Amino acid sequence: MKGGSVTKMILETIFTLASRQAFLPEAPPITPLDVLSWYEITSRCTYEKPSKLAEIIQSAGESLSLGKRILYVSEDVHLSLLAVIDASECPPTFGALPTDVQAIFQHQQAIFPPSLRATPRPCAGDTLVVLTTGDGCELVQQWKGEASSVHVVSIGEGRVDMGERGLRICLPRRGTLPGLNNLTEMACKWILNAVSTGAHVLSGKILGNRMIDLKLSNHKLWDRAVGLVAEEARVGRDRACACLIRIVYQRDHDWTKLLQDPVAQHVSAAFAGKRVVPRAILLALREKTRPCTVAEVSEEIEAQPRLGLFFSELRQ
């Protein structure tokens, strides 16, 4: 379970208890453990059919490996917002392109001004994930386009006959309070996290249990990148930092003076770069045996569709 899910559970438990006391004083009393037990049941229901979830993840991973997209669409405004959030987290988390994972937001006319409205259409090679509380048939017909793979994830109370068309997550209750759908939303969040994370693992963004192609957008991530290069290449942190700086500024010579510049400057220069950390790792590895140029390692990295597999084989 990721940190955002835990934070959501804790906050919703606090507000559920406070709201019941303030607005439902006649309701039977409940404890924090009662509320947390509902999340536990929701978790079991969410992962009850792992083989169906694995099919979606496999399809999504294949799309990313081919340079195609994962597209989410829903008729439910709350599930749509969760899809937008999941898609927006992929670039900083996985170093993904903004177009790799997208949400088709059907409710954008009520929320976004015309200048910000854009609706991607599924193309060959894309994976379309339909998020719904029903059977999703209308959404599939409306949005499947030329998508190579279409999957329906249906979440809610009661059973819906999905046949072989998708995954039905049957919950005993939709929310922790009457009128709330926060347990449905949590189940959707877990599914989206599994799909986007699993797809990036399969596309080679992960080495061991660590994301190696991260986007260097702040001081903390720069420091993490230095540690990754040092650990994966088995070099000191000073050497790792030097390799990162050479990659960021595309320098084979006259780069030592850049070591004195503030990290904020390096982050600004690195933000738009592609595969910065993997290239720095390879540079550090190659230079342990022979001099190597930035252009050489960049060319080698660009030829690798699955970085995790590439580095795993390089270790052997």
Instruction: Give, in order, the helices and strands.
Output: HHHEHEHEHEEHEEHHHHHH
Q: What does the radius of gyration come to?
A: 23 Å
Strand content: 5-15%
- Helix segment count? 13
Describe what this molecule looks like in 3D.
With 316 residues, the chain is α/β, with parallel strands linked by helices. The radius of gyration is 23 Å and the shape is globular. It is built from 13 helices and 7 strands. A hairpin with a 2-residue loop joins strand 6 (206-207) and strand 7. The two termini are 31 Å apart. The longest helix has 21 residues, at 3-23. Helix content is 53%, strand content 11%. The model has no long low-confidence stretch (mean pLDDT 89).
Which short descriptors sum up this protein?
single chain; 316 residues; alpha/beta; 5-stranded parallel sheet; 13 helices; globular
Question: How does the SSE layout of this entry go?
Answer:
Blueprint: H1 3-23, H2 32-46, H3 50-65, E1 70-74, H4 77-94, E2 101-105, H5 108-111, E3 127-132, H6 137-143, E4 149-157, E5 166-171, H7 182-202, E6 206-207, E7 210-211, H8 219-233, H9 237-249, H10 263-270, H11 276-286, H12 294-302, H13 307-315
Parallel strand pairs: 1-2, 1-3, 3-4, 4-5
Antiparallel strand pairs: 6-7
Helix pairs in contact: 1-2, 2-7, 3-7, 4-7, 8-9, 8-11, 9-11, 11-12
